[in-house]
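Retro notes
What went well: the complex prediction finally ran end to end.
Inputs used:
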Amino acid sequence: MDDHSALGEWLAATAKGDAKAFARLYDHCAPHLYPQLLRMLRRQDWAEEALQDCFLRIWQKAESYTAARGAPMAWIASVARYRALDLLRSKRPEDEMPEYEEAVEPLWADTGEDPLRRAEEGQGITRLHGCLDRLQQEQRRSVLLAYYEGYTHQELTAAMKAPLGTVKSWVRRGLAQLRECLDGGTAAVTPQ
Amino acid sequence: MKLQNPQLRRAVAGEYALGTLAGRARRRFDRLLRNDEALQHEVAIWEQQLAGLQVPSPRIRPRPQVWVQIARAIAPTPYAIAPAPAPTATTPPSAAPAPAASTIRSTTVVGAPPAANQSRFWRNWAGLATAAVLALVVALVARAPQTVTPPPVAQQASPSYVALLQMPNSTMHWTVNVAPKEGRITLAANGEAPPLDGKSLELWWLGANGKPVAIGLLPTHGNGTMPMPAGASGTPKLAVSVEPAGGSPTGQPTGPVVIVADVVESA
C-alpha cells in the first residue's frame, strides 16, 4: 500500500475517532519516529514519553491535519519533534540560563559521535544537500545541531564556542538562505 | 512580539519549526499561532522543508507499554475496578465456594444472556480494546523489521495463538498462549495486581458466534495452564470480566468486561 495515502486515510479516520485506524497509524509510524526521538533525547524513557505525548497529540489534533499541511509523515514527524523539544526544554530549562558569558557545557554535547557526520551518512539529507552546501560552515552546523540535537541558542554557544549573538545570527541567516535556496528550487530534488 | 513584517514572520516561524525559538518566546509564538492561519501556513512550510533532514534510520519498535499507555489515555471510559453490579433477583443468592485462582472451570454455556446494558458495554469495549490490543500484540510478535503491514488476522488449520491481555489503568497484564492442537491454554501474569476487592477475574473465549465460553479464573501472579474449554472453536477473541469471588455464578459474564483482545497467530 502506498504509505502516503494510507497514512492520510488513517489520519482522516483518526480525526473521526476511529481507534482502529489510530492503532494502525501508530503501528506504522512509531518504529520510524522512535529512533529519531531516541537520537534526540538519548534516553529510552524520554523517547517513550515523547512518543506517547506525540500520539496523544495526534489523537486530539488529527482533524487539524489537512493535505495543505503537506505529507502526512512530515506532519507527524514534526508533532513528534515538537514533543521531544518540549521534553528537552522541560528537563533542561533555558529560560533562567545565564547569558553566554557563563554558558555551560550542554549535557549532550559530548557524545563522541558527530551528529553531522551521522546525518551525512544518511540519504535523507540529499534533498537539502545542495542548499545546505551553500551555507557558511558555521551556519550549516548551527542549523543542523539545532535540528538533530534539539540544541537551543544557549547550547549552541557552547557547542560552537561562539557568543550568543553570533550563534543566533548563524541560525537565522542559515535558515533564511536555506529557505531562499529551497524556494528557488535550485537544489531541491523531488524525493523519490 | 507583533510579527507583522513578512520577513520576520518567516524567520521566526523557521526558528519555531527548528526549535531554537524557546522559552517565553516560543510560548508567545504558540499563542500567536492559534489565531493566525497565515502564520500556521508559514510554519507548515518550514516543517515540510526541514522534514527533508530526517535521516532514514533502522526502524525500532518501541516497547509495547508505550501503546498501552496511549490506548489507556484515549479510552472513552477509563475503567476502575468497582463493585460489581448488584445481583438481580434471578441470580443465585450465593455462588459456590471460590475455587483457587487458575482453577479450571469447565462450565459449558448455560444461563441467561447478558443484560442489555452489559452487552452495550461489551461492544463499546470491543471496538477500542480490539484495536489497541491487536496492535499491541502485533508489536509483541516477532516480525521482520522491514515489513510493517496492517495487523494480520489469524486464520489457519490449527495454529496456536498468542494474545496480550492488558488491564486498563493498571500495569497488570497477561500473556496468553492458546494451543488448540494441544488442547491447552497457558498464561503468565505480570505487573501489579489491581485491587480486586474480593472479586475474581474470569477469562472467556469468544468464538465465531461471539458467545462467551468460560476458560477459567485468571491468576494475578505466576503462570497457569488451563485446558481448552469445551465448545471452543475457531479463531477466538479473549475477554476478561470481573466476577464474584470464584467466578461467574451463571456461566456467562455477569460483571463488567474489562478486556477484549484479539489473538494473533504465533509462529
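What we learned: Residues 77-157 of chain B have pLDDT under 50 and may be disordered.
What to try next: split runs per interface for comparison.
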